[in-house]
Amino acid sequence: MGKSEKNANVIQSLQVGMSIIDVVAAQNRPLKFTEIQELSGITKSNLYKYLNTLTMLGLLYRNRKDGTYSLGGKLMEYGTAALGDRNVIGKITPYLRETSAHTSQTALLALWTHDGPVIVDICSANYGLNIGAQVGTRLPLLSATGKVFAAFKDESDPQVREWKRKELGKLSDERRKQLEEEIEQIKERFFSYALEPLVKHVSSFSVPVFDFQRDLVGAVTVVGFTEQIPQTAEEEMGKYIVEAVLEISKSFGFVAG
Fold it and tell me: What PANTHER family has UniProt attached to this entry (predicted)?
């Protein structure tokens, strides 16, 4: 009886619509109608109606050339609103573009959500590069970005503690000890490096952005082919990014030293 009462208070068509968005999001690439049908199990006639509605609402985007579906701009609007950091993204985006252009690499901005760092903006200078992530992707602890959040995000926040607990639970004792040593170095150098964390031959480094209270605002991360990405802040590209991100922090009232 309890189950039927619970179901009576649920709009099934909304659940179905959201399940379609989940399918598209999970594949991390544009999908054809037939692929969505196969993955969702929804009949053709119903799926047409759902896709037309979701596209009309801007929750999905339909490419007119090949007919594929991907996540729509409306979802990015909602994501940005949920983060509550429109001003942060707007402030940092110009620096992100400049960084990408100067380094000829992909630059991304990650902010904190309730369960870990998420990419909120990407500027790509190499459109053929698959970085293994897109706007909305949650980044793991062992990524360059994840290490920055592990090093500088306030652990008095229970959400931060829970995220670290879950992520550390996936590691061996040896890897956990190695990571602890890395994090101590990151705290000293304000620079994090990760060797091919998501995609083979693609590595990244990340630099923290602070505010006037010296709290972590987010992380600017540069991604590219492994041989092109510096492993230390002493290398030319590393120095440039550290200085550029320091300017971003100053725009939020951060005082160095």
Answer: HELIX-TURN-HELIX TRANSCRIPTIONAL REGULATOR, ICLR FAMILY, TRANSCRIPTIONAL REGULATORY PROTEIN
